[in-house]
Write a structure and sequence with these properties.
This protein is mainly alpha-helical. It has 5 helices and 2 strands, in the order αααααββ. Helices cover 62% and strands 7% of the residues. The longest helix has 15 residues.
Length: 112
């Protein structure tokens, strides 16, 4: 991970922490939706592929996604034709990400 990504992650986390409670829009529900929306917005302002991939990496690192969520997003976006460069980035990030945590109670399993 480049120094630029580390700096951008810190900036994104600080901006998130500074928002008042209840102001965060949760309309998008899956990680694939969030990534797709980010790609749409970045393309609308003329970002090139390198910028897209950089910002997606920042989003995923800053939000501490687990490897299962990243792989599911990769698979969904690949089926939608988002391209090999994105799939390779998501595969690389999934390998570095922490596994999903499972909490178990008798007769119940919870995923986070």
């Amino acid at each position: 991970m480049s120094l630029s990504v580390v700096d951008d992650v810190a900036e994104l986390r600080a901006a998130y922490a500074a928002q008042p409670p209840g102001t965060i829009d949760t309309t998008l529900t899956t990680l694939a939706e969030h990534i797709g929306f980010l790609i749409f917005k970045l393309r609308s302002i003329g970002a090139d592929e390198a910028e897209l991939l950089h910002h997606i990496e920042v989003l995923l690192v800053a939000s501490c996604q687990n490897r299962t969520a990243i792989r599911e997003a990769r698979d969904t976006l690949q089926q939608l034709g988002y391209g090999d460069a994105l799939a390779k980035l998501l595969t690389r990030l999934a390998r570095k990400a922490k596994p999903a945590r499972h909490f178990s109670l008798p007769n119940h399993t919870f995923k986070t």
